[in-house]
Amino acid sequence: MSRNRVLQCGGAIAQAGVITRTVEIYVIQNMWWAFVALLAGVLLLAVASGAIQRRAISSIGSRNCAGRSWRQAFPAASKTDIRRFLQLFVDAFAISRKHVLKLRPDDAVMAVYRSVNPPDWSVADAMELESLGRAFKTNYGVDLKTIWRQDITLGELFYQARVG
Q1: DSSP one-letter string for 54-71
Q2: What is the distance in angstroms between the CA of the first residue and the CA of the last residue of the chain?
């Protein structure tokens, strides 16, 4: 192959490289809108999911204070013990602490779980039950796996926390 031919090939390759780099820069510079669209979509999904979750938990949030129900169900329990238990529960379920005294002793744990994780909108949960189990074991020394039923109520959990 002659030297002229090599130079011609080299020039073509160099030109192709410049064109390729130019196209890459052009594509990258003009892809910002795709990133913005993707970010907007994720943000919209997060807002919609939060709104649905707030609507689902509003059945609890719209209640009156259930402190009297807890005191009637557990007259020997102190207000501090009841609040501590309920705070542990709302923390495990990532429910706002302003709803702590709106939970009643007859509330089924799985009903609260379903209100936090609406079946039509929940892809995955935040491991609320596992968090509750760990916190229960740490704070009360009771393994929830040994007492768990699908219809267990907050009052039954509180009773186990007191005797556990």
Answers
A1: HHHHHHHHTSPP-HHHHH
A2: 90
